[in-house]
């Protein structure tokens, strides 16, 4: 296949970005606050995004390598190769998969007999199985962009919640996760922001990192129990007229230990 043949067949097709989880399932990646990460390879060699997105990934331009039968993705300045996606050796009648040459757990796929452009790609409140909750108080655009890129790399959703104070944030998170039956793994940041791997875990984890980031992570059930106990202790302090009301972080240790 050459570039012209590729464009004739796929210029108007949407390719959905997918990541393979540890359990073997392939999932699409959401781009907060828009829809799924889905792209179109335009004839001018730009990458078009099918859904409204809050930020753009590093891949912005594409080139066709006829010798390697690959799509080369470059950054916005077109000065660096970000990734290479190989065309399939064998083609079927239903899917066309571009596999990441360096990482087989990442791919772009289009369904030949289905047009994703016709479906509503905007997400509901939360449909992701893996979500990191943050307070909506981040004013640094560069940090926000890094966090969103992190969410793509780790195949999870970042959910910013507006809250009047720390306890309002705990209550907002508790409401969000108890209203969503699809959630499996959750991380709640009480301070700081995600910048390391393996934040989302199956085992309940309380972390105080050197950069002052404090978060609790685990399954939906475990995190719900922790947040519920925090709220109960807070309400008890309020009802008993305690002279000093503790913050959620101050109560985390005794909640998890108990």
Overview of the structural elements:
The protein is of the alpha+beta class. 25% of the residues lie in helices and 28% in strands. It has helices at 3-10, 141-153, 166-178, 220-239, 248-257, and strands spanning 15-20, 26-28, 38-41, 47-49, 61-65, 70-74, 81-86, 95-100, 106-111, 130-135, 157-161, 185-191, 205-208, 214-219. The strands form two sheets. Strands 1, 2, 3, 4, 5, 6, 7, 8 and 9 form a nine-stranded antiparallel β-sheet that branches. Strands 11-10-12-14-13 form a five-stranded mixed β-sheet, with helices on both faces. The longest helix has 20 residues, at 220-239. The termini are far apart.
What would the keywords be for this entry?
258 residues, 14 strands, 9-stranded antiparallel sheet, alpha+beta, 28% strand, 5-stranded mixed sheet, elongated
Query: What portion of residues belong to β-strands?
Result: 25-35%
Q: Which structural class should the secondary elements be placed in?
A: alpha+beta
- The residue fraction in helices comes out at 10-25%
Number of helices: 5
Cα distance spanning the termini: 62 Å
SSE order and pairing:
Layout: H1 3-10, E1 15-20, E2 26-28, E3 38-41, E4 47-49, E5 61-65, E6 70-74, E7 81-86, E8 95-100, E9 106-111, E10 130-135, H2 141-153, E11 157-161, H3 166-178, E12 185-191, E13 205-208, E14 214-219, H4 220-239, H5 248-257
Parallel strand pairs: 10-11, 10-12
Antiparallel strand pairs: 1-2, 1-3, 1-9, 3-4, 5-6, 6-7, 7-8, 8-9, 12-14, 13-14
């Amino acid at each position: 296949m050459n570039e012209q043949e590729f464009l004739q067949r796929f210029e108007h097709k949407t390719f959905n970005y997918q990541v393979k989880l540890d359990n073997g399932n392939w999932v699409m990646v959401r781009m907060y606050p828009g829809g799924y990460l889905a792209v179109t390879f335009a004839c001018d060699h730009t990458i078009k995004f099918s859904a409204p997105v809050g930020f753009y990934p590093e891949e912005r331009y594409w080139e066709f390598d006829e010798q390697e039968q690959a799509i080369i993705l470059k950054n916005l300045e077109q000065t660096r190769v970000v990734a290479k996606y190989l065309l399939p050796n064998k083609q079927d009648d239903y899917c066309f998969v571009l596999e990441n040459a360096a990482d087989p757990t990442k791919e772009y796929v289009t369904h030949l007999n289905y047009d994703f452009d016709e479906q509503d790609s905007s997400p509901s409140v939360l449909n992701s199985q893996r979500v990191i909750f943050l307070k909506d108080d981040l004013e640094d655009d560069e940090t926000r962009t890094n966090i969103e890129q992190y969410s793509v790399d780790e195949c999870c959703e970042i959910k910013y919640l507006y809250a009047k104070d720390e306890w309002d944030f705990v209550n907002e998170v508790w409401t969000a996760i108890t209203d969503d039956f699809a959630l499996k793994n959750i991380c709640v940041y009480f301070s700081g922001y995600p910048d390391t791997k393996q934040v989302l875990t199956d085992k309940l984890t309380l972390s105080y990192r050197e950069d002052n980031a404090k978060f609790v992570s685990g399954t939906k059930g475990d995190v719900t129990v922790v947040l519920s106990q925090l709220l109960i202790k807070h309400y008890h302090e309020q009802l008993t007229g305690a002279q000093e009301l503790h913050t959620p972080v101050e109560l985390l240790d005794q909640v998890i230990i108990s």
